[in-house]
Amino acid sequence: MDSMGCPLSIKKDRDGDGVYDYLDKCPKTPKDAKVNDKGCWVLKNVEFDTDKWNIKPRYQSDLDEVSTVMKQNPSLKVEIHGHTDNVGTEKYNKGLSKKRALSVMDYLLKKGILAKSLSWSRHWFSKPIASNETEEGRVRNRRVEIHPVR
Fold it and tell me: What is the pTM of this model?
C-alpha cells in the first residue's frame, strides 16, 4: 500500500508510457512513443493533396518522430496503409494509394529504418474515415496511416 492506501500493484506502469497498467489499453507501447490517455501510441495520419503522393513539409516532423521511436525499439515493425478519396476509378486510386504508402515508406527508409521493419498496403477509397460527399471529408480520406504491428 502507498501512503494513500492504494495497492502498489495498481500503480504499475510496465511499459513506461505514463499510463498505469490497469488503465492501459495498449500494453507494450514502444519506448518514448507519445500516447493518449488510454496508453495507445498516437500516430497522426499524413494527408495528401488531390492526385499527389509527395509528403508535405508539415508532416515531416511526425514521420521523424516515428523514425526516432522505431530506432529506439529495433524490434518494432509498422504497417503503412495508403488511402484515397473516391474521386476517380478504383483502378486509378489503387495505384495512387500505393504511391502514397511507398512515399512514406521511402521517407522512413531514408531516415535509416530497416526495410524488414516496414510493410505497406493500399486501401484506395475502401476505408474512408470521413464522408466523401464533402471536400473536408475527402481531404481527411487522402491519407496514409501508420500502424504498429504486434
Answer: 0.85
